[in-house]
Specification:
The complex is a heterotrimer of chains A (310), B (500) and C (315). Chain B has 500 residues and is of the alpha/beta class. In chain B, helix 5 runs parallel beside helix 6. Chain C has 14 helices and four strands. The chains are: A mainly alpha (310), B alpha/beta (500), C mainly alpha (315). Chains A and C meet through helix 5 and helix 13 of A and helix 6 and helix 14 of C.
Chain lengths: 310, 500, 315
């Protein structure tokens, strides 16, 4: 445990540096309004990245999270807009879980995770497009909008949701049997199997969770922006992966955690915010995201304990 | 003395953590001779070869090739010095042609068109090489589709093509039919006729007499003897391989009462791997499983544990038939300590604590929530009772010594309260002190009513720890020996399938 | 023919890759369902539209053969097209502009290759990152909009004819020939197979594996640049996002054509057939009147099924 917090130190330092730097760039940066905004944005990114973190901990990957988010949110939105808030939400979550389950099945059969989930990315994207027919659904009932745009005790709801999810995930990963299985699986899949862990079942569960969480993140997201179209998921994949990688979770499995992803999401959001403040063209964002992914993986390579033993 | 000697290894020693693999070994190879290298598993043969091949660095001693001192740093360099090693798992690229494999890295250039390979010349030269070995393979055929024996011939042709002076063959005949072995020997004779020196490693002692000019025996990392084959006999060789002093390493109490039957294996069959296996193990006894590498012992253990499937027969553990999954076996009360504990037994990047409890989580924490205090107590108790050397239970497992790591694996299974344990090479890669401790623990376990099936390639360990011994050879059990009947020669003979 | 060769070829024919069946099956189905499919006009269309896919898939074949993958090839193509268009608009001589586009592709290939071979980073993450970078650069350079009206010089590469055949088809044929020769007649090609089949054997033979591994990605990037030329010519404009999704089709073409992700097993001709099959699939779905959105899914489903079947079938 101490090992983990120690390696988080450089990242926490990075956040402080970014905060300081940005406060120099713009006087408005340190206002409560702006900081709350940043936290809220980071929450949304964090939510999406949290399921991905669990998958990556098992030495896998889920490239479909953006499309699954879009698909499940699109279908859910259809019902929610007509007033069926709970039914719509449940349907959305079910779709997310189903896509995740399919991913898990493909991986269990032996397909490399990046190919399986990359394929799912296109399939889900396609179905989202079919469903939406290129249109936008907007204008959700107030009850639903509370999730993304509401406030509780002065704090934006997404931030509260993030805190809850963060705590639940930390608890699940560090304090439950399931969490142990996840880490052990990622650290050494064969040893896990030979220790009596049901590796197949865990695989299916982990990918299904990822899909489910993507769908949940989608609900919060569309509640916030009060609209949905089939392409909302596209720009979310890279930042999510970047958040996980920057957060210190190793792509090789068995190392890292949700706390790191939270930190990573914060850093990514600060970078985006900073770019906006500097009036950089929004088109630079994919470039920066891509560069950050590559950089963080490269840095990770030098520090990964697992690679040294291989 | 140096003339006629293509290779001299003098005073080679190699130390690995916890184990001295080679101790002042000297070995020489003449031009045009076949020098057979024999010894039990762990005698040091493969380490010696790996040093020659550049895969390991020797600690002391020197290497002289064709009269010139050689400092070998890496495999490519060894190749350049004329050393060609043909390993059991061939080093071929599957989906290109035979000719391309033979000339890998040295492709002849097209005479007219720059940048292209001269396929015609490559094929013709390969054809010539293969014909000189009396082998009928079309050099244009893709290696992947060739049979094992043919692929081996490609390796030999490759060695010829690089004008290797020293060719090492590691267990070349393990997968060949009699006729193919004849062909291999003919090819070897052609090699030696050209002055190439061949180092031939084999467990099949009859081959010493079929193809060897001289034979060297290694034992426990030391050179024992080198003799001309015409002066040697089978008995003399076996005696050299085996004779050793036995020290107080094996605390066993054999007067334990045997309890219920832990394991029954009946007519077990796994296509191509195991045939007609019948084994029983009872509580209170340690049953040894002896045999050579490739005899099928680990395969049998894995099938019993459920790590691999089987085709016919029955495996019953504590009265329950098991098949198919390790999880099911663990639930019935079996534990498996694998041969390769780093790759299959432990998650090295996780702390010791987690490795100990991983298989018992459901039992210890049925609600699914882990209670730190309880985990701490449980693990600390094992650290004490097994005398696990570690500053803290949170230490990352990869920093522990080999002996300590093995104890962690043992702790893992003891934590599950397994009563039947399968040990695959329990003390491999462990220093002498820790070895004795592990043996002590094993004795304690069976005294308390556990049953142990132990695979071991170290004959003293097998002989002194086992109540009974099954000897395996080529996927079958060739003999069951009681403690009284068992001795080193008997085991070796049955392990090699030698019928006196 | 010797015994060993004959046995080998019988086995190869028997285990023909999925692409062959797919192409035949799809062609039959569409020929039956729509009268327009088998017309010369339509088939030429398929050929023209498939040309970019074939060119890009050729490079992808070598990459996958060497046990790698390149997810960035789509946006790299888009970026190369943008570079070409912008250069033309700036009155740069056409040959130089084309060179710039190809160099763009090659540079990204080099970037990928160096990161993968030198640092040992997983290919899919590195190329996912460069996906973003290429995409971002393309967007930045064009500020999100297309660059239209490139003039007859560029248009020649779509409308022109050589020996009676449209230029894209000629270019595809030339690209195929060049890559074929590289793969089967040069040592570079041998090493590509070795990188995927047994990298240690290659290292043991004293070959500089890192150099050749990087080279494979560079070649892929160069081919993407060539593909960008054809694509830009066809649309007479450069769109920054035009390439997205192309990599999926390319990967599918390669896998359907019999190349595996491991072991260095593959067939360049199969990739051609696979690319044709994918193009026929898209063309046919279009003719049937299926909306583009359905197409995206259907193609995805078909391709995943093919890959799953292929991996279950084993080698």
């Amino acid at each position: 445990m101490s090992h983990f917090w120690l390696s988080s130190l450089p990242r926490l330092v990075m956040i402080i540096v970014l905060l300081v730097a940005l406060s120099f760039v713009s006087p408005a940066f340190l206002s409560v309004q702006n900081l709350t905004n940043i936290l809220r944005q980071a929450s949304l990114l964090f939510l999406l990245a949290s399921g991905l973190t669990v998958v990556i901990l098992t030495a896998g990957i889920d490239l479909s999270i953006g499309s699954v988010l879009a698909l499940s949110a699109s279908v859910a939105a259809n019902f929610i807009q007509q007033g069926w808030i709970w039914a719509g939400s449940l349907i959305g979550l079910a779709i997310g879980a189903a896509c995740g389950l399919l991913n898990g099945l493909m991986v269990a059969v032996g397909l490399p995770p990046f190919i399986a989930t990359y394929g799912m990315l296109w399939v889900a994207e396609g179905f989202a497009q079919v469903f939406m027919k290129g249109e936008i659904i907007s204008g959700f009932p107030t009850g639903f909008r509370f999730l993304g745009a509401g406030y509780l005790a002065g704090v934006p709801v997404p931030i509260l949701v993030m805190i809850v999810v963060l705590m639940v995930c930390i608890f699940a990963l560090r304090r439950t049997n399931f969490g142990r299985y996840v880490y052990f699986f990622g650290a050494n899949r064969e040893a896990a199997r030979l220790s009596g862990i049901n590796t197949r079942g865990n695989l299916l569960l982990v990918y299904s969770l990822s899909g489910l969480i993507s769908a949940f993140a989608g609900l919060v997201y569309i509640s916030r922006i009060d609209a949905v179209e089939s392409t909302i998921g596209e720009p979310l994949l890279l930042p999510a992966i970047a958040a996980v990688c920057i957060g210190g979770t190793s792509l090789f499995g068995g190392e890292g955690g949700i706390g790191g992803t939270m930190v990573g999401a914060l850093i990514m959001t600060l970078v985006t915010n900073g770019m906006n403040l500097l009036n950089a063209s929004p088109y630079w964002q994919p470039f920066v995201m891509g560069a950050i992914v590559v950089l963080s993986v490269a840095i990770d390579q030098f520090g990964s304990a697992k690679v040294e033993t291989a | 003395m140096a003339e006629g000697l293509v290779l001299q290894l003098e005073g080679i020693s190699k130390q690995f953590p916890g184990v001295k693999a080679l101790d002042d070994v000297s070995f020489d190879l003449r031009r045009g001779e076949v020098h057979v290298l024999v010894g039990e598993n762990g005698a040091g043969k493969s380490t010696l070869i790996k040093i020659l091949a550049g895969a390991h660095r020797h600690d002391t001693g020197r290497i002289v090739i064709s009269g010139q001192p050689a400092d070998i740093h890496n495999p490519a360099q060894a190749l350049g010095l004329g050393v060609s090693v043909i390993y059991q798992e061939f080093n071929l690229v599957p989906f290109i042609s035979v000719a391309q494999n033979i000339f890998l890295g040295r492709e002849p250039r097209h005479p007219k068109i720059p940048g292209l390979i001269d396929h015609a010349r490559m094929n013709a030269e390969s054809q010539a090489l293969l014909e000189s070995l009396s082998v009928d393979i079309d050099p244009r055929s893709t290696v992947h589709y060739l049979g094992v024996a043919q692929q081996q011939m490609v390796e030999v042709a490759k060695a010829l093509s690089v004008n290797a002076q020293i060719v090492v063959m590691d267990e070349p005949t393990s997968a060949l039919t009699t006729r193919e072995i004849e062909q291999l020997f003919a090819a070897i004779r052609r090699l030696t006729a050209r002055g190439v020196g061949v180092i031939y490693i084999s467990h099949r002692l009859e081959e010493v007499f079929q193809i060897g000019d001289r034979v060297t025996v290694l034992r426990d990392g030391k050179w024992i003897t080198t003799m001309n084959v015409q002066d040697a006999t089978m008995d003399v060789i076996i005696q050299a391989m085996v004779g050793r002093t036995i020290d107080r390493m094996f605390p066993r109490d054999f007067a334990i009462e045997k309890g219920e039957v832990a394991l029954t294996v009946r007519n077990l069959h796994r296509h191509g791997v195991l045939q007609d296996i019948n084994v029983t193990v009872r509580c209170g006894e340690i049953v040894g499983l002896a045999g050579l590498v490739g005899a099928g012992r680990t395969e049998l253990a894995r099938v019993i544990f459920g790590a691999d499937p089987y085709d016919a027969g029955e495996v019953t553990i504590f009265g329950r038939t098991v098949r198919g999954s390790p999880a099911a076996s663990v639930a019935v009360g079996v534990g498996f300590l694998p041969e390769d504990r780093k790759r299959e037994g432990l998650a090295l990047i996780l702390p010791l604590r987690e490795n100990v409890v991983v298989a018992s989580l459901r039992r210890l924490f049925p609600s699914g929530v882990i209670k730190r205090a309880k985990e701490h107590t449980v693990v600390t108790d094992f650290v004490k009772s097994l005398d696990i050397a570690t500053p803290s239970i949170n230490r990352m497992t990869k920093f522990l010594s080999g002996g300590t790591q093995q104890k962690v694996v043992l702790a893992k299974w003891l934590c599950t309260q397994s009563r039947f344990l399968i040990f695959d090479e329990p003390t491999r890669g462990i220093d002498v002190g820790a070895k004795a401790e592990i043996h002590q623990l094993m004795n304690e376990l069976v005294k308390q009513g556990a049953a142990i099936l132990m695979i071991s390639s170290e004959l003293p360990e097998v002989l002194n720890m086992s109540d009974r011994i099954y000897v395996m050879h080529k996927g079958r059990i060739t003999k069951e020996l009681s403690r009284e009947e068992a001795n080193q020669e008997a085991i070796l003979r049955h392990a090699m399938g030698v019928t006196t | 023919m010797s015994e060993t060769l004959r046995r080998e070829w019988t086995r190869r024919v028997a285990m023909a890759p999925g692409a062959v069946y797919a192409l035949i099956l799809l062609s039959l189905v569409f020929a039956l369902f729509t009268a327009q499919f088998l017309t010369l006009h339509n088939l030429t269309n398929v050929g023209m539209q498939g040309s970019v896919l074939v060119i890009v898939s050729l490079g992808m074949t070598l990459i996958i053969l060497s046990e790698g993958i390149d997810l960035s090839i789509g946006p790299v193509l888009g970026l190369a097209g943008v570079v070409l268009a912008l250069a033309v608009k700036q009155q740069v001589a056409l040959p130089l502009a084309i060179l710039a586009a190809i160099a763009t592709g090659g540079t990204f290939g080099a970037l990928n290759g160096v990161l993968i071979s030198r640092l040992g980073l997983p290919p899919f993450v590195v190329t996912l990152g460069s996906f973003g970078m290429a995409q971002g650069l393309a967007l930045v350079l064009t500020e999100g909009s297309s660059v239209p009206g490139l003039g007859p010089g560029v248009q020649y590469f779509n409308d022109g004819r050589i020996l009676g055949f449209q230029v894209p088809i000629i270019m595809t044929a030339i690209a195929f020939l060049v890559v074929y020769v590289i793969l089967y007649y040069t040592k570079f090609g041998t090493y590509v197979f070795a990188l995927g089949g047994n990298q240690e054997a290659l290292a043991l033979a004293g070959v500089r594996t890192r150099l050749y591994k990087t080279g494979v990605y560079v070649l892929g990037g160069i081919l993407a640049g060539v593909g960008a030329l054809v694509m830009t010519a066809r649309m007479n404009a450069a769109h920054p996002t035009v390439g997205v999704g192309l990599e999926f089709d390319a990967i599918a073409s390669v896998i359907l054509g019999g190349t595996s992700f491991e072991r260095g097993k593959g067939w360049l001709g199969g990739t051609m057939i696979g690319a044709l099959a994918v193009s026929v699939l898209r063309n046919g779905l279009n003719l049937i009147g299926l909306s583009t959105s359905w197409q995206v899914s259907m193609v995805g489903v078909v391709i995943i099924l093919a890959i799953v079947v292929d991996s279950l079938r084993g080698i």
